[in-house]
Amino acid sequence: MVNDLIFPDILLYLLDMVGVIACAIAGTLLAQHKGFDIAGCILVSMVNAIGGGTLRDMALDRHPLFWMTDLNYVIVITATSLTLQVFFHLYHKIDNALRFFDAIGLAAFSVIGFKVALHQDISPLIAIMMGVWTAIIGGLLRDIICNEIPLVLQREIYITASIAGSVTYLLLDYLGLNPGLNEFIMLGVIFAVRMLAVKFDWHLPSIRLVD
Q1: pLDDT in tens, 27-47
Q2: N-to-C CA span, the chain
């Protein structure tokens, strides 16, 4: 019984750290590419890694904020950013590397935000929204700081991937699938949809009125 209660929390925490590391890498890659200094790269990686979760917790009135009570977030982000800055020369294909780690962060944070909201007894629709917020806000702020047009605003299959994963979770949960396995499936669906969109250049259509 104890393991049944503890395992989901450990799983969520590990997923959170995976997302944090991935987003710290993505943020540092872009900031370094833009010529930011050491502190600037760390700042961008912080915003990218914890920005979405911070907004989610504020919206759900969860206090204190998660990274204020667990210094592992700040330590991991800082260490990841510094390490990557030292070995930045190994990443020759900046766009491919950025999109790969961005996809990992998107998947992990979507699962985290979605599950946190469900644990707050929030309706499924709002839980899906919290998953999206957790996944995209950090990257949105990162791109704005780095003077880039945010990926989520460029007809990218980004928000759609997060929603697809959440809907998959809800359907499988309705069918009685084990929650732990369901989380991994949700993670895989989001990552797969995002990377397939990058590989095959899938984009959402835009609506334009003809004059």
Answers
A1: 998 999 899 999 999 999 999
A2: 65
For residue 189, the Cα-to-chain-centroid distance in whole angstroms is 14
- The three state secondary structure string of 54-88 is HHHHHHCCCCCCHHHHCCHHHHHHHHHHHHHHHCH
Residue pLDDT, tens place only, 115-131? 999 988 889 999 999 99
pTM of the model: 0.84
Asked if 124 contacts 170 with a C-beta cutoff of 8 angstroms, the reply is yes
Q: How far apart are CA 120 and CA 150, in angstroms?
A: 30
- Distances from the Cα of 58 to the Cα of 51, 66, 201, angstroms: 11, 11, 35
Tell me how far apart the alpha carbons of residues 37 and 31 are, in angstroms, rounded to a whole number: 8
C-alpha distances in angstroms, 191 versus 7, 15, 96, 120?
Answer: 23, 13, 14, 25
Residues in contact with 171: Cβ distance below 8 Å, sequence separation at least 6, in sequence order: none
Give the distance, in angstroms, between the CA of residue 137 and the centroid of all CA atoms in the same chain: 9
CA distance 135 to 176: 26
